[in-house]
């Protein structure tokens, strides 16, 4: 029965993930009750995603480090500087401004890897860049956010770095132990069920992250709508600029860079901050899940049409 449930979740991934966010918004009690599961869901989502990686393909792509280095420079420094410049000329609430900059500085979503496959993009490039930036996140994000960008996150530098390291390093280590202990063949046989676990973790995360959003909307609907509009604008804007910057690499890779630029892993940041950040920052991280869950389904025809353009070698 559990196997059938996980297979069902894997087959209906996009609908189930969207349902989690909607459920959290419409049923605040469920969001509140699942709030303690927020950090565990992030951890096991990372573990499940790492288990499903095709590591030989990752290693082959890693032998071309120039692409990964360009992506890292853009995703860490380029998008951060771009977003910092954008918010500096806009009159935004502090929590929203910090949230946008943190989004532009974080690693791409792990789910960008299967999305790249679904959308017909460069999945190997997406895998190397996503895993590389995720693994390095504890080293670069705290000094970037707290020192170079001067953001006030209401959390000590050391604690932020240690929590990020524990979350990212722990998930990599646990996934490696499972893969070695259970064997590659077992992991391959359970691929669909592992995907179902990923979708389940995303659904739990989607419900839990909405804790407090409905109440905030009831109290200040105009503020929440501003945050939602900024989340969609930030996601789409970074995707468009990222694809444009790398258009010289060909449409497939340019769209891959765009996908990675706009869809960032704020779940890791939420887990590392452990609720200590300003409410405005956490509110933005919550509503920023809406474009992450909604836009891929809307933009899928656009990606597929553009992907038919011959790729530059």
Walk me through what this model shows:
By secondary structure, the chain is mostly helical. The protein has one domain: Na+/H+ antiporter like fold (Up-down Bundle). The protein is built from 18 helices and no strands. It has helices spanning 2-11, 13-26, 28-34, 38-51, 55-62, 65-88, 94-105, 112-118, 123-148, 157-182, 184-189, 191-209, 213-219, 221-245, 251-262, 266-273, 279-287, 289-307. Helix 3 (28-34) crosses helix 12 and helix 9 (123-148) runs antiparallel to helix 10 (157-182). The mean pLDDT is 81.
Shape: globular
CATH topology: Na+/H+ antiporter like fold
Number of domains: 1
Strands, count: 0
Order of helices and strands: HHHHHHHHHHHHHHHHHH
Q: Briefly note the structural class of the backbone.
A: mainly alpha
